[in-house]
Design brief:
Structural class: mainly alpha
Distance between the termini: 47 Å
Helix content: 55-70%
Order of helices and strands: HHHHH
Number of helices: 5
């Protein structure tokens, strides 16, 4: 019985913690937008996006990712960075 409660509590902590992080798709959208702004979207050998997506999900806030998705130029991208 105790192990069930422990599993339930750990599951809730995981779910609540995951809610504060941006989704994988939002991180991909933000990454694509920044690549487009910086002229990297049409590169013949683009870098693997997976490390950037993992870092985004681990360290960025939902607000930062939304800001990067909405960015129109380099100044907008710079404004999205935490102070």
């Amino acid at each position: 019985m105790r192990w069930r409660i422990t599993v339930l509590v750990l599951g809730l902590v995981f779910v609540l913690g995951a809610c504060s992080r941006p989704s994988e798709e939002d991180c991909r959208r933000a990454l694509r937008n920044v690549q487009k702004i910086r002229g990297l979207a049409d590169s013949p050998n683009p870098p693997d996006p997976e490390p950037a997506v993992r870092k985004c999900r681990a360290t960025a806030s939902k607000d930062q990712v939304a800001c990067l998705i909405a960015a129109k130029n380099d100044q907008d991208v710079a404004a999205c960075q935490p102070k």
